[in-house]
Automatic annotation (TrEMBL):
It comes from the Bacteria. Pfam families: HTH_11, WYL. Residues 149-202 form the WYL domain. This is Transcriptional regulator. Residues 6-62 form the Helix-turn-helix type domain.
Length: 233
């Protein structure tokens, strides 16, 4: 079990027995780690705002205040990524830090399998600078699922539109524009499409093997940073 999954499981274990406590030793045996690791995990959860407190005494341990915590929520991976993307637009504002804390709490309340999908999708979105362009692209998230095949109309610089079938696998934002990275079946190679030149978009029922950046030999400049669900602050 990785640390993200263990933090989620720790909260759920304490929620299940609340208001009764669980000792660090008991939790260490339950998750097959050291008591010191449990103490570090509990400290990290407390710093993120999770309402965990310690009870002293022979039967003491860690307790969760259920009235100040979120139960497991049905936040989808796309919703989590959209929230992380919106958070990037709050750089430099007085609300950046509390918004980051709220995102961490929501991610901690998600199912581990959904968190894994959300992190994978976030890693396919690369941003230049500290903020995303002001307008979110209509092609982001579930509208163009990675591993799917989409039929688009795409206009060139002269306005001529061609019909193409593409396999999306990443997104890039530079300055005030969004770009879709996809495998173009018409050109039989990776292509970068400007979102404002996509005139039509139709999802098909066909699936395609998900591709990675390395597989298509497409270099992402180092100044472009991938989106993350665990922002600093």
């Amino acid at each position: 079990m990785n640390r993200t999954d263990r933090l989620y499981a720790l909260v759920e274990e304490l929620r299940a027995v609340a208001p009764r406590p669980r000792s660090a030793r008991w939790l260490a045996e339950r998750f097959e780690v050291s008591a010191r690791t449990i103490e570090r995990d509990i400290s990290a959860l407390q710093q993120s705002g999770t309402a965990i407190y310690a009870e002293t005494g022979r039967t003491g341990g860690y307790c969760l205040d259920r009235t100040h915590t979120l139960p497991p929520v049905n936040l989808t991976p796309e919703e989590a990524v959209a929230m992380a993307l919106a958070l990037r637009g709050m750089e430099g504002t007085p609300f950046r830090q509390p918004a980051a804390s709220a995102l961490r709490k929501l991610v901690a309340a998600m199912r581990p399998e959904d968190v894994a999908v959300a992190r994978e999708l976030a890693g396919r979105i690369h941003l230049a600078g500290d903020s995303a362009p002001p307008g979110l692209p209509r092609l982001l998230g579930g509208a163009l699922p990675v591993g799917g095949v989409v039929r688009i109309g795409y206009a060139d610089r002269h306005g001529a539109v061609t019909s193409r079938e593409i396999e999306p696998f990443g997104y890039v934002s530079v300055r005030d524009r969004w770009y879709l990275i996809a495998w173009c079946r018409l050109r039989d190679s990776a292509r970068i499409f400007r979102s404002d030149r996509i005139t039509t978009m139709t999802a098909t029922r066909e699936t395609a093997r998900p591709r990675t950046m390395a597989e298509v030999a497409l270099d992402i400049p180092h100044r472009l940073r991938p989106l993350t669900l665990t922002p600093a602050g």
